[in-house]
Amino acid sequence: MNNAKPFCISKREVWEAYKQVKANRGAAGVDRQSMAEFEADLKHNLYRIWNRMSSGSYLPPPVLRVDIPKDGGAGTRPLGIPTISDRIAQTVVKRYLEPLVEPMFHHDSYGYRPGRSAHQALEVARQRCWNHDWVLDLDIKNFFGSIDGNS
Fold first, then answer.
1. Residues 74, 80: contact at Cβ < 8 Å?
2. E strands, 70-118, where?
3. Residues with Cβ < 8 Å from 117, sequence gap 6 or more?
4. Residue 75 near residue 64, CB atoms below 8 Å
5. Burial code of 76-108, b = ≥16 C-beta within 10 A, e = fewer?
6. How far apart are CA 98 and CA 43, in angstroms?
7. Rounded to whole angstroms, how far apart are CA atoms 27 and 82?
8. Is the CB of residue 28 less than 8 Å from the CB of residue 82?
9. What is the pLDDT of residues 60-97, one digit of tens each?
10. pTM score
């Protein structure tokens, strides 16, 4: 066995992920730990993330649910806020997986894609409306919230 850890995650990757999370300036998660509190013991906190991820023992903590108002005042939608540590771990995974899976997506896929936005998707839809004289009208209100997660 050449490696002491079963997963090859470099400490540099955890550091780079931390810098990205810090730049996003997100709110504290369920543990209520602010970025300043996380940074008070930065070396230990980053080491703990690296050690758990590279050993395969990382378990994500619960996510803080916050209801935020929808545009136009039409109710609220739930938003999950991970802890700072979990955002760093997620960013490590994203930085690894994104270059591998990004080329597999359909060129018309816009959701949660780097360099793509809902505004770009709307612009493509607008352009295509000039090319076709028919429309599909779908009501997908709360579609993902109504899917049975047990099936």
1. no
2. 76-81
3. 110
4. no
5. eeeeebbbbbbbbbebbeeeeeeeeeeeeeeee
6. 26
7. 9
8. no
9. 999 999 999 988 878 899 999 999 999 999 999 999 99
10. 0.77
